[in-house]
Amino acid sequence: MAQRTQFTESWVGVAGIRTRYIAEGAGEPLLFIHGGHFGDMNSAECAEVWNLTIPDLASHWRCVALDRLGQGFTEGPKDEAAFTMAASVRHVADFVRAIDIAPCHVVGHSRGGYVAARLALDHPALVRSCTIVSSNTIAPGPASNEIVFADNPHRPFSAERARFVVERYSYSIAHIDEAWLAIRARALQSQTYRAAAQRMAERALYLTQFSPQLEDDRHDLLDRIARDGLRQPTLVVWSGNDATAPVAVGLDLFRRLAARQQRTEFHLLNATGHYCYRERAPEFNRTLRDFLGRV
Amino acid sequence: MNENWIDVSGVRTRYLIAGDGEPVVLIHGGEIGAPEASEAVWVPCVNALARQFQVLAFDRLGMGGTAPPKYDEDYTLAASAAHAQQLIAALFEARAVHLVAHGSGARIAFEICLGGAIRVHSCTILNSATVTPGVMEVVPRPRSTDAREPRAQICENFRALMAPQSRIPDAAIEAALTLRAVDSLAEARRKMRDEDLRTRIYLKELGAGRGALFRRIKEQGVGVPVLLLNGADDPLVSAECAALLLQALAEKRHDIELHLLAGCGHYPQLEAPETVSDLLAAFLGAI
Fold it and tell me: pLDDT tens digits, residue range A45-83?
């Protein structure tokens, strides 16, 4: 499948962090938040994961996609204490203010779905509506990622290792474009990405800090969803064939959100793995356009 | 919108038609004789859809203004499907149609998709217990329709299946009140209840027909893109059951979707007509 992977790239300082983003279109701002986390030696996410969504939505919205803290080509945290999901959320909130797009619609995938929900709860003035896509991070229950990807035969930081991750995440490889993979590999191998990953590995920060703090934060998030709910209209989009985020988990998350916010919708797509907005791009784009048009 | 009448193999059949474009056939749910079950449940969506499509809403066999089956053995969903198919063929000839079905109407829509006699573009199913695995035991019990306070009774019947905060549109109540007074419908209702056609014929065929339907869906697939559009607070059809139906349909197709609406029960087209019309127009328009 021939895909467009060239977008106008911009840079902005966000609380001292040199941050990369791509933007296109005019209208109400729409912020796309990719998944993953800094320090992952298997695969790197970056803004271009949305390259099948942005060209379609840019006809009606100002589409912005950033590289999150220590991911893609954005610098990593300065202090060791900031190797946390909370710091990554703060960085996105500061980014929204820095490029002056509040209030914006937010769309977050995977770990980015957690960021989207957290922004909606903790910074309601920044968020107009919230879309959460295949996010096991926010949903209750365990994560199977480490087991799903345990048999990756390639060496850390290699393009082959990153390709394996994307393919294993997918139902069909039709959405996987070489130019997109090349950008991901370039991010994975970039100086800034590797510096953050090395620092995280040396001090075992994933196990000692990132993971336990995220677990606490997630419990807090689910408690607050149960107590107060999100103020914003919310769309949950889920994949039918994602080993890391089963359908039952998505339905559970939808129920929890719907209990406190009547303007909550859920959309399930079949024949797709983790990247449903890529594998079922026309249907995802139509569902998102329709939802945004309504809220 | 004007009422129209057509003779379908000797059955006088009522329908509404509006707009221009690709045909969209709206198939209501409910059981034979029930006054709440008629094309009236679609009225809030017809105008919105008629801006883009030619929309047909009709009363199924033995429901609304359409005459009851002549023979007891035709108090079935299979006979209702055959009737619907003949009506669509008569009105649209060889044109391909989009099917949008609610509740028990889903069986009719799937029979048409699988039957091959009508060309179908797409199929949308709203909250159907009839074609959903695992919910046989909660197929709606017959509720009394002959109480002394008919309006209260009708409201109660709608209310039992809607989300607590939903409003029943006045037009839906008025339509049911009018239908409640129609003699042929009262007679069909009496036969379903007093002669127990409901258990002996209707439900018996529903169970057997559903098994056969799932077998055909597994073997040959439904043949068209399907959107399952469900109110999430439906006491009859849970989100999990809808996800099971998606899985069954997905065995042969890569273009199945499920959309859930919070704050809606069994009648999303009455409880959130704007949202439902939006979703339908977007889905059908993209086919």
Answer: 999 999 999 999 999 999 999 999 999 999 999 999 999
At CB < 8 Å, which residues of chain A contact B?
240, 247-248, 251, 254-255, 257-258, 261-271, 282-283, 286-287, 289-290, 293-294
Residue B75 and residue B200 in contact, taking contact as beta carbons nearer than 8 Å: no
ipTM, interface predicted TM-score of the complex: 0.91
Question: Domain of B50: which CATH number?
Answer: 3.40.50.1820
DSSP assignment of A115-162 equals HHHHHHHH-GGGEEEEEEES-TTTSSS---HHHHTTT--SPTT-HHHH
**Number of folded domains that form chain B:** 1
Which residue segments constitute the domains of chain A, with CATH numbers given?
9-294 (3.40.50.1820)
Position B133 scores a pLDDT of 77
Q: Which residues numbered 218-247 in B keep a CB inside 8 Å of some CB on A?
A: 232, 239-240, 243, 246-247
Chain A residues close to B255, C-beta within 8 Å: 270-271, 283
Q: In terms of residue numbers, what domain contains B169?
A: 4-286
The one-letter amino acid code at A293 reads G
What are the tens digits of pLDDT across the range A110-146? 999 999 999 999 999 999 999 999 999 998 777 888 8
- Provide the pLDDT for residue B139: 47
Query: Strand, coil or helix: what is B69?
Result: coil
CB contact under 8 A, A290 and B258: no
